Amino acid sequence: MVNPVWLRTFVSLARTQHFTRTAEQLFMTQSGVSQHIKKLEQQLGVTLIARNSSAFELTEAGQRLLQTAEDLVETLDSLATWVADDPDDCGEVRVMSPGSVGLKLYDALLGLQLEHPGLVIDYRFAPNVDVETRVADKQVDIGLMTQAPQREGLQFHQLSQEQLLLITPAAYPTVDFMTLRELGFIDHPDGYHHGNLLLSRNFVEFSHMSEFNKRGFSNQINLILEPVKRGLGFTVLPEFVVEQSQQRDALQVHPLSHPAYEPVYCVTRKAPQQPRRVARVKHFIETSIQRRVAGDWLA
């Protein structure tokens, strides 16, 4: 590998065309400049400068080297600045969460991106297991999950909890367990998990979600309630999804004696230091979710 110190000396000498001025620029002695050029010639196996009693000129090999070396030296000179440059308002940040978490959060993140156009928010919706895998595999910077991750190398903390709601068509102002069995279940990626959490706390007859006939499935968070509105079955979803739904009068939300809640965790890789842009977006997410819990969600 070419010694970058010798290469810098060669470029400076080629520009100044003077050993003494090169030595002054590089805070060296004139003999030190000569030694660097000689060592570079020995390393490359070519003569780079043709000397005479009072001056020198670049050989053909020296001219070819200079064409590339100037760019290399400039790159090396700016490398430290480039490596240390870590703006908090520029660059891509990859976020992934289940749809129930991201439904409103994504809108808030777009607001952050409008304030800082240099930021690029890559937001993807996925089930908890996929979120955990992508964060662990360094494909996602920030994960939001409704179940605590299990994989090594991850760190997490709980941001909030979301109440789970039992939702039926509006034609059912009250329900019992038999009514739910007759209706059947509208499933979604977290449907069995949500249903088990809520129904096991409120119906002694309940054993497992598999005892309900499956009447439909959607992995699009904004479509899950559509078949419920049309009378095709019931479902269980976090409160926020219901708040965002259109035509709420077509739905009946049933208050139950024993509420169940789903936690929301922020998940990142264990690392000595996060890029500042990732830290900024993570703080914004945490603040946004906490403001929503306090009833002051970002518009």
Question: What features would you describe in this structure?
Answer:
Belongs to the LysR transcriptional regulatory family. This is LysR family transcriptional regulator. It comes from Idiomarina fontislapidosi. The strands form 3 sheets. Strands 3, 4, 5, 6, 9, 10 and 11 form a 7-stranded mixed beta sheet that branches. The chain has a two-stranded antiparallel ribbon with strand order 1-2. It is α/β, with parallel strands linked by helices and 299 residues long. The chain has 2 domains: 4-84, Orthogonal Bundle (Arc Repressor Mutant, subunit A); 89-299, D-Maltodextrin-Binding Protein, domain 2, CATH 3.40.190.290. Helix 1 packs across helix 3 (30-44). Helix 5 links the parallel strand 3 and strand 4 (119-125). Helices cover 44% and strands 21% of the residues.
What is the topological layout?
Blueprint lengths: L3 H13 L2 H7 L4 H15 L4 E3 L4 E3 L1 H25 L6 E7 L1 H17 L3 E7 L2 H9 L5 E4 L8 E16 L7 H7 L1 E3 L3 H12 L11 E4 L8 H4 L5 E4 H5 L7 E4 L6 E9 L6 H18 L6
Parallel strand pairs: 3-4, 3-5, 7-8
Antiparallel strand pairs: 1-2, 5-11, 6-9, 6-10, 6-11
Helix pairs in contact: 1-2, 1-3, 1-4, 2-3, 5-11
Organism: Idiomarina fontislapidosi
InterPro entries: LysR_HTH_N (IPR000847), LysR_subst-bd (IPR005119), WH-like_DNA-bd_sf (IPR036388), WH_DNA-bd_sf (IPR036390)
Protein name: LysR family transcriptional regulator
